[in-house]
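Quick one before lunch.
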Amino acid sequence: MSTTSAPKTGIKVIVVGAGFGGLTAAIECHRQGHDVSIYENFPELKTLGDIISFGANAGRIFYRWSNGEIARRLRELCIDLSSYGFRIHKWDTGEVVYHQPTPEQKPDAPVLNGHRGELHEVVFRYARDELKIPIHLGQPVNEYFEDENQAGIVLKSGERVVADLVIGADGVRSKARELVLGYVDKPKSSGYAVWRAWFPNTDMIKDPRTREFCINGDTFNGWIGPDVHFLFSTIKGGKDCCWVLTHRDEHDIDESWSFPGKLEDVYKVLEGWDPTCRAIVEKTPSLVDWKLVYRDPLPTWVSKHARILLVGDSAHPFLPTSAQGATQAMEDGVTIAVCLRRAGKNNVPAAVRVHQEIRYERVRLVQKTGETTRDRWHKTDWEKVAKDPKSIAFPREDWIHQHDAEKHAEEVFDDIFKKVTQPELFENVKLLPVGPIPVAV
Ligand SMILES: Cc1cc2nc3c(=O)[nH]c(=O)nc-3n(C[C@H](O)[C@H](O)[C@H](O)COP(=O)(O)OP(=O)(O)OC[C@H]3O[C@@H](n4cnc5c(N)ncnc54)[C@H](O)[C@@H]3O)c2cc1C
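Model of the flavin-adenine dinucleotide complex:
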């Protein structure tokens, strides 16, 4: 575990976006000795969002920051299910069909589930106040440029800032993606939407039907029904409550987090369900209606001269049922930072291409799990569950969670670097493309 930064590489990196993807890319670039700064659209830090999940593969990354101190700060804000586990109910009868135990937490790779805004604040402050990474707020970046030698961004003042590499970590509505692909990649409806809410336990605790969730520490329950699932957790010893309901929705495509939802619509979906679900939902002061969009995997995350790279949601949005969107954004940041150090200042475009080769297939496979888990739940065969209750468990696969992005990048870098820089030495090398990608007519 290292806390001090590596020797300076002289590589200058601009990161656009200060979400978990952008912050991790910046923190890891700092750790690997690069000179990094962030440009972010929001003018001030706000505690936005609700529940977000980080797998052990993210916990391992957090743990390397400040000798475990950042992981410790995050852990304090997160749900602790070590004794409660995850109770999975049948939607109508409410019976618990499977009680999934919580795997033992590894101190150096904790699983972290908590309020997105609270966790984000910890990471943001660590980057800005402790590592002194310059974070320029109130800077919407809508123009990018590059040539063989450098890349840059245009600020709203018209000022041009240049660097060896620009990392576009600007989320699902990415502008950087337009430059990389050469066209605007419109999201499609996934056919599903999520209602989500986060609120204090004040009313929950007064109602005997819901009190049990708030007086015995943290809890996590899921109700699985026909093409719908409802997840409910209590956090901070039962003080905060949070639920997420995924349901069919073919309406407008919107990738916003703040679209208000209506309780009456939720009640309609919950007709015929275990009354506990409605008893929980009734306590909700306000909720968000978030349409789940889908994107086919982008053909490339790398610009023509390989000096602009997309990471996180701008490259690959995830469905919440994968519980890996933020974690995969973090793995991106770790990987590019390692590749840049290993390749050196004179080989930045090669580093970027190696990053893409390392990350692309893994991300695609993890993305798929969002669909498979949703389908496993939404098309449940209850006879099969009666015989094999584990078949309804939330999958926690080792190939996802045991992965150490930093170690992996270090191990495979040399081989892939050779393939990228000297393809003629190999037979049948098939490398991923760089943009812009011609649009098929
Ligand atoms: C406000 C907000 C709330 C969220 N709440 C949740 C939640 O409750 N649960 C959950 O699972 N996920 C949530 N997410 C999404 C989740 O954080 C991401 O899916 C995941 O962490 C991957 O992060 P990312 O850094 O790639 O993208 P994001 O987290 O979307 O970060 C992108 C960043 O880029 C900035 N940006 C965008 N365009 C520009 C531009 N032109 N110039 C400069 N900066 C720009 C955005 O302001 C944002 O800070 C939320 C995202 C946001 C932005």
